[in-house]
Amino acid sequence: MTQQTIIERRQIEDRVAEMGKEISRDLEGHQVILLCVLKGAVFFATDLARAMTMDVALDFIQVSSYGSEMKSSGVVTLLKEPQMDVTGKSVVIVEDIIDSGMSMREVHRYVAGRGARVVKVATFLDKPDSRRVPFTADYVGFSIGSKFVIGYGLDYAERYRNLYEIRVVEES
Ligand code: IMP
Ligand code: MG
Predict the structure, then answer these.
(1) Which of 66, 79, 93 to probe ligand 1 with, by most ligand atoms within 8 A of CB?
(2) How far is CA 20 from CA 23, 94, 121, 161, in A?
């Protein structure tokens, strides 16, 4: 397997800081819940939370569609429900990457059906050319091509989440 860095640590830090400011500006005066999609978005969510200029609550949801494969199985299962009541709150769904769009479509539907005042989606990475269902995030860190990537929370069979940078992997 070969690996090639496509986004450096410094670029990630700068971009996440910008996103935190932008989201804070848009949601000024709101009670914000960052809803982190486990496990991949954990690194992004903790950095984004600290880049926000208002205080935010943190909650977690987990869905599964991948197993350990590089391609989506297309079936989205809810593995862990959020704990907080979102009624009247503004929920920012925090995701690591949007690929086929199936996971975000389901998570968005789930949250929107629970009485949140506002539901936004912030994804660290987006692969717009890989959609199998249409989905547009409100905030995108970086748009990338349809390559499989690791690092900054993204895994390949549970490995490499703790890399500071984003790398493309290719099986050799
Ligand atoms: P989607 O439902 O196809 O949009 O898939 C989204 C989920 O698949 C993400 O939350 C990731 O967990 C995983 N995923 C998609 N692309 C990649 C990738 O390039 N590397 C690692 N995980 C990925
Ligand atoms: Mg994920």
Answers:
(1) 66
(2) 5, 12, 13, 22
Quote the ligand 1 centre to 72 CA distance (angstroms).
7
Across the range 141-154, mean pLDDT stands at 98
Rounded to the nearest whole angstrom, what is the distance from the C-alpha of residue 97 to the centroid of ligand 2?
7
Hey, whose CA ends up nearest to atom 3 of ligand 1?
Answer: 100
What's the sign of the alpha-carbon dihedral 26, 27, 28, 34? Answer: negative
Q: What is the mean pLDDT of residues 91-114?
A: 96
Fold exhibited by the domain 10-146: Rossmann fold (3.40.50)
Is 99 annotated in the active site?
yes
pLDDT at 84: 97
What gap in Å lies between CA 172 and CA 100, rounded to an integer? Answer: 24
Domain definitions of the chain by residue range: 10-146
Residue 68 has pLDDT above 90, yes or no: no
Residue 4 scores a pLDDT above 60: yes
122 pLDDT more than 90: yes
Confidence (pLDDT) at 79: 94
Task: State which residues have CB under 5 angstroms from ligand 2, the bound ion.
Answer: 40
